[in-house]
Amino acid sequence: MVVIIPSAIFFIALGLLCGSLLNDKQVGGICGAVVTNVSGWLSGIWFDLELIGGTFKDICNLLPFVHGVNAAKYAIHGDYSKIMPELFWVIGYAVVILVAAILIFTYKMKNGSKTSN
Predict the structure, then answer these.
(1) FRET label pair with 71: which of 30, 42, 84, 93, CA 20 to 30 Å apart?
(2) Residue 117 pLDDT > 60, yes or no?
(3) Structural domain includes residue 117
(4) In the prediction, which pLDDT does 92 show?
(5) Which domain holds residue 102?
(6) Averaged over 93-100, what is the pLDDT?
(7) Could you give the CA distance from residue 35 to residue 116 in angstroms, rounded to a whole number?
(8) Does some domain include residue 62?
(9) Is 104 inside a domain boundary?
């Protein structure tokens, strides 16, 4: 369970970022459907990325989704030495997305309060 916490934080941060950038209808459509499907396709949950390979696999390896899945797989199989290299990707993305969400939300709050006066 501890291994999936960084992935959970990443998705929470992504939801906060979407909520800061988009209106409520857009958030429901994008975060609800698009992010779920994109993360499923790019994580290798539904199919083995080795089957496709090439550029698609390379792009997937640059994103946090496949690394979160790999970390969970390693935890389940008891291969603990391989968990942290995978989690560093997820933690890095989570921090960047969370900081961006905080900065954008703070900017919009300050900017919104100035325009309403």
Answers:
(1) 30
(2) no
(3) no
(4) 97
(5) 2-112
(6) 96
(7) 33
(8) yes
(9) yes
